């Protein structure tokens, strides 16, 4: 990956050991340090809201201003048990081919609600991690649910 003509020059301070590693990797790869840094950043930084469906970006962007406690609440949020029960029933009816138009609308609505919650939980975890919080793994979260 060559540095594009639209590249921006940044001055950063790194620990000496990190700078040595970076130079050594660039030397081994026979590539400019700038290219190695750009590749590491692209691979290591999580995607921003550009990768999220546009309809959800506004709500997620507002989460950036929430206090950590509120983000932890979002991370542990779950769908209402009645919604889960209804969703399962609608899925079953859909599989059986007995779902009417109102049922399809309800299923679509619940799927969007579940998707929105999933994006909120993921973004809450991401924000907490960026803020230096220890975010449990998915397995740990499921074990406490």
Relevant terms:
single chain; 145 residues; mainly alpha; 2 domains
Helix segment count? 7
Number of strands: 0
Order of helices and strands: HHHHHHH
Helicity range of the residues?
A: 55-70%
How would the global form be characterised?
elongated
Q: What is the chains' assembly state? A: single chain
Low-confidence stretches: none
For the biggest sheet, the summary is: none
C-alpha Rg, in Å? Answer: 22 Å
Average pLDDT taken over every residue: 90
Structural class per helix/strand content?
mainly alpha
Domain count: the total is 2
| Percentage of residues in strands | under 5%
Distance between the termini: 43 Å
Structure description:
The chain has 145 residues and is mainly α. It has two domains: 45 residues; 96 residues, no CATH class. 67% of the residues lie in helices and 0% in strands. The chain is built from seven helices and no strands. α3 runs parallel beside α6. The relative contact order is 0.09.
């Amino acid at each position: 990956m060559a540095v594009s003509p639209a590249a921006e020059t940044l001055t950063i301070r790194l620990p000496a050991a990190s700078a040595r590693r970076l130079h050594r990797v660039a030397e081994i790869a026979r590539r400019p340090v700038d290219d190695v840094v750009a590749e590491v950043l692209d691979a290591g930084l999580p995607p921003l809201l550009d990768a999220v469906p546009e309809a959800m970006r506004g709500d997620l962007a507002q989460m950036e201003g929430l206090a950590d406690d509120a983000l932890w609440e979002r991370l542990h949020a779950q769908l209402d048990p009645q919604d889960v029960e209804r969703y399962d029933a609608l899925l079953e009816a859909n599989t059986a081919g007995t779902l009417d138009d109102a049922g399809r609308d309800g299923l679509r609505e619940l799927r969007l609600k579940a998707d929105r919650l999933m994006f909120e939980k993921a973004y809450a975890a991401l924000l907490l991690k960026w803020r230096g919080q220890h975010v449990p793994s998915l397995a740990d979260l499921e074990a406490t649910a």
